[in-house]
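Section handout 9: paired folding examples.
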Amino acid sequence: VFHQKIDYAPAEVSTRYGISGVKVRISYSQNKKGRAISETYKIS
């Protein structure tokens, strides 16, 4: 069971060679003091 909040953000860009897509995953976790930490990973 996962206890993290995860968001996804797909994006597309049009170039002269075609359309390229990027999917970004944002993972929110909490440190020991209870503050939110976010990490972003890009997959192209």
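Moving on to protein 2 of 2.
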Amino acid sequence: MSAGGMTGNGASGASAKQAEKQTQDVLEITAPSAVLIENAGGRILYEKEKDQERIPASITKIMTLLLIFDALKQGQISMEDMVTVSEYAASMGGSQVFLEPGETQSVDMMIKCISVSSANDAAVAMAEFIAGSEQAFVDRMNQKAKALGMEHTHFKNCNGLDDSIESGHYSSAYDVALMSRALITSYPQISRYSTIWMDEITHSTKKGDTQFGLTNTNKLIRTYRGITGLKTGSTSKAKYCLSATASRAGVSLTAVVMAAPEPKVRFAEAASLLDYGFANCTGYLDQTSTLSFRIFRWKTVCRRWRRHM
């Protein structure tokens, strides 16, 4: 098992091991896989089994949202476009907003349903709207994963309903951090959706208008200062996963926890990772007016940064 935080360049093996032990003692991360990165440069601040392939469950939808915002940026779709729900999209189980076949909702509302309520039906409806079919959309997801350097990820669907690695749907804590970083840095407006605590969707069908409440599955948005999103995921085999993003004083971080044994563990340990990052990472403007970072551990400057662009 690999677990550790930042280490000093040129330090002796003994001091490096001591620093790693101090990091582990401070964080006490029990989830099987976890990673913390600084979003501006992609530096890894903490890792534990970061490349282990695991079932991502609904944090799959981070990639779905990333491709939706790509399509918006490219002008392929607009927020005001109306999406017609297919029978297939409406048939999704798990977390959903109970879209009906033939029902129409705006792209804006679909993004809200995916971000807040982790709606499987809305995710598939958007995949079909953008690419013509879920499979064609999944092909784009895998292409994007490759472009981002996600070496331990393969998608089979757009919502994470597959519940086994054997099915060919898997990711790793570090890969989840990579796509989370891409989403939050390229499209910071996602925070307007992923930090909504409660809202509602109005279903307008032949039966009339009905409302369905949306409640955010990411409890950190109510408890963690500086939280900017992002996405939860859970199934019986994936257990409890979370990618959480936060920003304070110009420092933006992503913490990923995978396969936690229960919901409160993923939230507590993601918060601990973020606390560690903010305590040891300070943004400053260098001579080129570029935002850079000094990373500290217990008042000692860390001289080696692992850079992952």
